[in-house]
């Protein structure tokens, strides 16, 4: 009984004291935001046909559909061309801001609004990658995904360095200004009756109120206990959302694999052959003909795809097998991107796979990127600090592979995360207010 209590206490402390998977959450933030940004830029010349008010799926048809299914889309607030152009531009800017990690909390909310609004405006022009982005844009709102490899993290590191030198850090004005603007927009939309109910308006108002509460508590000199409580709540939400993202990825592969098993084409090993000879899935006909010229290769690819998808959820408890399957699945999606001409679907799935990557690999990758950037900018090889670039091996947040029996690739550690909106700075003696993106430097979790 004592051993069970101790194990439970450690588990609760681990979930509440710090955000797990800081590097994994940063990777999926960059991946999903970058995928959506590339899609919006790629389809910019065709935006009118896809989502415009005078497109094939007209504004009136979209309004009838959304009135029946109650799907959230800000494009239904007005049928004018100007509103559509402004909103499309805002969707591009919010995607870029989230990818760079600038004001991550506000950017994640705007990113979610952009994804849901455009996809729900024209539900018949998407593919499986759009479904993944649709779900992940909601989950990202609950994560503290700006803790590393972000502009927020770099700003927090610079503030901390200034405090250590005894310098007075300048106050943050952008965060409170964004919070006020977001509140005015939400209030105006609500008073105008544009919200038709549903969970998205509730989520937006709750997030806005939470950011305001966080900023107010951080500015109170003696509010140590409320700060700890809010930090614990943020950690629990982050860790829970990260688990949901992992479960969603496993569910996608499991359902895809088991449904394939029931198909006769997959059973006889010919399912891969037919998409290669469809005109709209053959950007490289010569390459498709070369791949499909061997029946043995087609059968191996078909059976291998099914086995990998069905087996993947069961391999999470074995690091070596999981990492091998990750390489196979990412390679498969890269091939799909080239051979079948589905780059955005493949990027979305590769990003979903990245949540299972080992922390040690991500740290190595971050260090390589930092050194390459340093050589390009003429600043030497650069270094990773665990915030903007990579991380040193002695970083307190670097614990190697941990999580599910030490194999899921999530790292913990109480290390310091980045910052976001509603944050400010103190003087040389008092700690500056922290943002929802910023973790604690000591144990603040609950124990059983």
UniProtKB/TrEMBL annotation:
Main location: membrane
Span list, region Disordered: 377-448
Residue intervals passing through the bilayer: 23-41, 82-102, 174-193, 199-217, 229-256, 297-317, 324-344, 350-370
Cellular component annotations (GO), alphabetically ordered: endomembrane system
UniProt keywords, alphabetically: Membrane, Transmembrane, Transmembrane helix
Bias type Basic and acidic residues, positions: 378-401
Residue intervals of the HTTM-like domain: 17-361
InterPro entries xrefs: HTTM-like (IPR011020), Sporulation_signal_mat (IPR052964)
Membrane-related topology note: Multi-pass membrane protein
Subcellular location, record wording: Endomembrane system
Record-linked PANTHER family: HTTM DOMAIN-CONTAINING PROTEIN, SPORULATION-DELAYING PROTEIN SDPB
Name the record gives this protein: HTTM-like domain-containing protein
């Amino acid at each position: 009984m004592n051993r069970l209590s101790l194990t439970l206490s450690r588990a609760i402390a681990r979930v509440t004291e710090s955000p797990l998977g800081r590097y994994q959450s940063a990777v999926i933030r960059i991946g999903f935001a970058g995928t959506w940004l590339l899609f919006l830029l790629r389809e910019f010349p065709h935006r009118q046909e896809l989502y415009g008010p005078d497109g094939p799926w007209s504004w009136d048809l979209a309004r009838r559909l959304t009135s029946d299914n109650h799907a959230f889309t800000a494009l239904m607030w007005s049928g004018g061309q100007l509103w559509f152009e402004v909103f499309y531009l805002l969707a591009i800017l919010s995607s870029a801001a989230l990818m760079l990690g600038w004001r991550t909390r506000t950017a994640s909310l705007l990113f979610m609004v952009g994804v849901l609004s455009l996809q729900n405006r024209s539900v018949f022009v998407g593919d499986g990658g759009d479904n993944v982005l649709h779900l992940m844009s909601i989950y990202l709102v609950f994560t503290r995904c700006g803790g590393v490899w972000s502009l927020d993290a770099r700003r927090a590191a610079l503030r901390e360095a200034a405090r250590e030198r005894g310098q007075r850090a300048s106050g943050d004005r952008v965060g409170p200004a964004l919070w006020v603007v977001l509140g005015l927009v939400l209030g105006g939309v609500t008073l105008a009756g544009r919200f038709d109910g549903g969970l998205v308006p509730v989520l937006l108002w709750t997030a806005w109120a939470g950011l305001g509460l966080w900023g107010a508590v951080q500015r109170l000199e003696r509010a140590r206990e409320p700060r700890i409580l809010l930090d614990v709540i943020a950690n629990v939400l982050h860790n829970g959302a990260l688990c949901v993202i992992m479960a969603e990825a496993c569910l996608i592969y499991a359902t895809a694999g088991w449904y394939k098993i029931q198909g006769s084409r997959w059973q006889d090993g010919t399912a891969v052959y037919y998409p290669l000879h469809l005109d709209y899935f053959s950007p490289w006909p010569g390459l498709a003909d070369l791949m499909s010229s061997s029946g043995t290769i087609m059968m191996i690819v078909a059976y291998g795809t099914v086995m990998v998808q069905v087996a993947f959820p069961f391999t999470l408890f074995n690091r070596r097998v999981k990492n091998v399957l990750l390489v196979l699945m990412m390679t498969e999606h890269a091939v799909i991107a080239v051979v079948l001409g589905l780059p955005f679907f493949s990027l979305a799935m590769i990003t979903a796979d990245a949540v299972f990557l080992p922390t040690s690999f991500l740290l190595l990758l971050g260090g390589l990127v930092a050194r390459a950037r340093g050589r390009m900018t003429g600043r030497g090889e650069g270094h990773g600090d665990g915030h903007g670039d990579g991380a040193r091996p002695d970083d307190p947040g670097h614990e190697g592979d941990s999580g599910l029996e030490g194999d899921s690739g999530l790292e913990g550690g109480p290390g310091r995360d980045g910052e976001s909106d509603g944050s400010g700075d103190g003087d040389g003696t008092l700690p500056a207010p922290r943002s929802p993106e910023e973790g604690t430097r000591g144990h603040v979790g609950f124990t059983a």
